[in-house]
Amino acid sequence: MCGIIGYTGSQNAVPVIIEGLKKLEYRGYDSAGIAYYDGNGINVLKRKGRIAELEQYISETIHNCQSSVNCQLSTINCSLGHTRWATHGEPSDINSHPHVGNKRNIAVVHNGIIENYKQLKEYLQNKGVGFASETDSEVIAQLAEYYYNGDILETVIKVSNRLEGSYALGIMFCDKPDLLVAVKKDNPLIIGVSKHGNFIASDIPAVLKHTNKVFYLEDKEIVILYKERVEFYGIDGEPITKTSEIISWSVDDAEKGGEPHFMLKEIKEQPKTLRDTINSLIKDGENKKVLDNFNIIRYNKIVITACGSAYNAGFAAKYVFERLCRFPSVEVELASEFRYKDAVIDDKTLVILISQSGETADTIAAMREARAKNAETLAIVNVVGSTIAKEADYCIYTAAGPEIAVATTKAFSAQLITLYILAVKFALQLNKISPELGNSLMEEIVSVPEKTALILEQVDEIQKHSSACVVYKSIFFIGRNIDYAIALEGSLKLKEISYIHSEAYAGGELKHGTISLIEDGTLVVAIANCKNLHSKIMSNVEQVASRGAKVIIVGNSPESDIVLPDCNELFSPSLSVIVLQLFGYYVAANKGLDIDKPRNLAKSVTVE
What we know:
Elements (H helix, E strand, L loop, with lengths): L2 E7 L3 H12 L6 E7 L4 E7 L2 H14 L13 E7 L14 E2 L5 E9 L2 H10 L11 H10 L4 H11 L2 E9 L6 E6 L4 E4 L3 E5 L11 E4 L5 E4 L4 E4 L5 E2 L4 E2 L15 H7 L1 H13 L3 H7 L8 E6 L1 H18 L4 E5 H4 L10 E7 L5 H12 L3 E6 L5 H5 L2 E4 L12 H20 L5 H12 L1 H9 L2 H9 L6 E6 L2 H17 L2 E6 L16 E6 L5 H12 L4 E6 L6 E2 L9 H18 L18
Parallel strand pairs: 16-17, 16-18, 18-19, 19-20, 21-22, 21-23, 23-24, 24-25
Antiparallel strand pairs: 1-4, 1-10, 2-3, 2-4, 5-6, 6-7, 7-8, 8-12, 9-10, 9-11, 11-15, 12-13, 13-14
Helix pairs in contact: 3-4, 4-5, 7-13, 7-15, 9-13, 9-17, 13-14, 15-19, 16-19, 17-19
């Protein structure tokens, strides 16, 4: 959930770290800090609030001690940085990372949750160790300092073996001021290597400006970073050899490109994202090889599991799989529920896992539960080298590139288009559709990017409708069949970034209780793309309008307020969602909110 960046090299480390933290702020932004060696010992500067506040504090620190030899931050070549999403302890200066041991000989940054921190804290307190913060993370720094006898590797191994839970750690030692150490378990950490130095980071955008050459740490692997080299070790202390990978993303991919927010930029990138993802599945490449060699016939059950927007993509896909594949059983499960429900699955079950980051904690746990029960797993992820990508039996990568805004847009659309193609390919294998129909459906899918581009030409119209909706305290989304599935995503997107109460309902369920919430001053957004259910959803529109609701209709009929290009209704969610994303974006923009970093949220949920 938190963001980690570390650097050792020939450049001034402080601006490198601050710049990296800004690229990671989507992972957490209630506090931030840096640690560095100041000539006498490890110094830490940290502040509650956004990274801009930390940057201001650092600037004031430099200004106030220009005459001090020990405060020349411009000469620092090794540093750790952290941006926090709180789990243990409220956001505050003292609970911010980095954390240090009592003697200030060791500094630690941590992403994850230490489940046995109370026992470790009590153990150390009995040894006379005092604690300053309310966090679980401080126990790591104190434990490391308690164990440290000059042997870095031995200390990290001892600490790792005592910790229960999840962690990605960056560690700095006072008596080794030019090196950093990192280790991980169940949380992401990459190692970047460049001509001027080496990095640890939670995610690729933090290092893209400096290098596209990275190593991915496996669980319980340890890396020691020197200015000129990196060394990898197993948890037994034996050296290991790792192979680097080259990242295809560019620096521009992780910039706003002139837009006021990353979210708007990423909405507008969706035609390209869809084209790239489609091409990766139907033209030569690793995705096509996976798909061509996949045999759906050996399964009698499909379970799709994911969290948040990825779950909504899976829920929409359920309708497509059922309609095309006529599969005996297609279930969609929240990963946070699936992992605990003792699911009825076996070696004839295909579990499809969907995760933008490939590091979603609940989805990882669901994957491991599925594999423990001999089910086979197929992952749809956006990040090469992520945990889910590496552990799943099969993996398909979406071509969304880096997505910085916390509220997903283009990654969701890439997941959805991938699921459409899987459904068509599976239906052909199962002989549930003819080759002619299969070709027709694929042509329809290939046309989706162009149709989404047409919707983006209606931005002004969508913005006009959004501007009138700021005053509403409650907004409902309704739809039937697959329109209901995408209504769930529209509602989630709105509430994530606008903080307006919002719910999505199947249109036919209104009369079973929900309609009691409709009154004057309620807004209802109706999705209407299912032709055989058009009269039904319009009846629902009349029902809510007669009770004082204002209604905005999104659909492919002329009576719609926002008219979509004609499309096979199975693939219409890819068009509806563009409107719903823009609607939510402009409602939040008109409220003047921090759209890319909504309160209490972080991009990648790597803790339970």
